[in-house]
Amino acid sequence: MDAAADRKAIDLKLLDLRGKCDYTDFFLICSGRSDRQVAAIAESIDERLRGEGQKPLHIEGMGQGRWVLLDYADLVVHVFDPPTRDFYRLERLWSDAPVLREIEGDGSSPAQAGVGGAAEAAEDGAG
Fold it and tell me: What is the residue range of 79's domain?
């Protein structure tokens, strides 16, 4: 999450989807205020994870900057612009998933639940 926060991502959430989803264990959802910022956040996350030896299986939306999806198998990262995030409302779709970590707004008020194991790896990789 730090890689996203470093690029001033807003409203970050790390969701634990283990046992609720067949294709991934964690979602990291965050927003950027503009298409350029969305792309910069996604690039920062990808750069950090590649530096840790994790290459994405798939990247979508980098050119448009409205919704970038980075798929690392166990971790799927969604970086939205605010209108697109509001339209798709992934947090509502996965409302039964525990929120492992949340940074509201611009990151000035972090709230964190207990994390461990793969969640820490996902958090560290995305952060």
Answer: 2-125
pLDDT in tens, 65-109: 899 999 999 999 999 999 999 999 999 999 999 999 998 876 554
Q: CA torsion angle for 84, 18, 71, 117 (degrees, to 10)?
A: 120
CATH of the domain at 13: 3.30.460.10
CA distance 125 to 72: 10
Q: How far apart are CA 25 and CA 17, in angstroms?
A: 5
Mean pLDDT of the chain: 86
* Count of structural domains within the chain: 1
Contact (Cβ atoms closer than 8 angstroms) between residue 7 and residue 37: yes
In this structure, the chain runs to a length of 127
Letter string b/e over residues 35-63, b meaning 16 or more CB atoms within 10 A of that residue's CB: eebbbbbbbbbbebbeeeebebeeeebee
Beta bridge partners of 78: 29, 69
Q: What pTM does this model have?
A: 0.83
Q: Where are the beta strands (DSSP E) in 44-121?
A: 58-60, 67-71, 75-80, 99-104, 109-112
